[in-house]
UniProtKB/TrEMBL annotation:
Transmembrane segments: 24-42
Record's protein name: Ancillary SecYEG translocon subunit
Domain (Ancillary SecYEG translocon subunit/Cell division coordinator CpoB TPR): residue spans on this chain: 15-205
Gene3D superfamilies from the UniProt entry: Tetratricopeptide repeat domain
Pfam short name (any one): TPR_21
Key words of the record: Cell membrane, Chaperone, Membrane, Transmembrane, Transmembrane helix
Subcellular location: Cell membrane
């Protein structure tokens, strides 16, 4: 059993934030640069570009269908050509469809590409968590642990503990798994996630 709700909520919140604040973000980048005339021209240009990128992202994301390879190709192309938050979000969307098709190597590569496209810590955390789960499916526990170490922020403690425990258990480290899940239970996690971690601890040998 896996819990994705916290990650999905973060992704939805990030999408909403950039949809509503694209103009403000564009303006903030160049405060203090250039004369008033240059500022007005640049602001107008960036605002238009941001809206266009956002609209294109919404289009390719909405059209994604794992049974239609051409929609995956279009979304992957958009992600590769946009080294920004929208490109990273597209990488998340494409990776999910690759997982649905059991193309784990492609999914992992897409997530790694998305990590290079954004500096937003929360979005990076979601990308890394998805990547760690895929690496777990690929039976690469050491890679999982390295990926989890790159995630910053106390809000991810319980979810990280969940995946870390699974990776350690797959290495035969029951003690390490117990310690990881105990840390997750002690964190500010949701009751459902704490209950799941407790069940996993209860099923450990010894």
């Amino acid at each position: 059993m896996e819990v994705y709700s916290n990650e999905n909520e973060q992704v939805d919140a990030l999408k909403g934030f950039f949809a509503q604040n694209g103009k403000a973000l564009a303006i903030g980048v160049i405060i203090g640069i250039g004369a008033l005339a240059g500022w007005r021209y640049w602001s107008s240009h960036q605002d238009t570009s941001s809206r266009e990128v956002s609209a294109t992202y919404q289009q390719v994301s909405g059209a994604l269908d794992a049974s239609k390879p051409e929609t995956l190709t279009a979304a992957a192309k958009f992600a590769d050509s946009n080294s920004n938050t929208y490109g990273a979000l597209a990488s998340l969307d494409v990776a999910k469809r690759y997982v649905d098709n059991n193309e784990l190597d492609k999914a992992a590569a897409q997530l790694q590409s998305g990590l290079k496209a954004t500096k937003d810590a929360n979005l990076q955390a979601v990308l890394n968590l998805r990547l760690a789960r895929i690496q777990l499916q690929q039976k690469q526990p050491d890679a999982v642990l390295k990926t989890l170490d790159a995630i910053k922020g106390d809000g991810w403690t319980a979810i990280i503990a969940d995946v870390r425990g699974e990776a350690l258990l797959s290495k035969g480290d029951s003690k390490g798994a117990r310690e990881a899940w105990s840390k997750g239970i002690a964190s500010n996690a949701s009751p459902a996630l704490k209950e799941m971690l407790q069940m996993k601890m209860n099923n450990l040998p010894g």
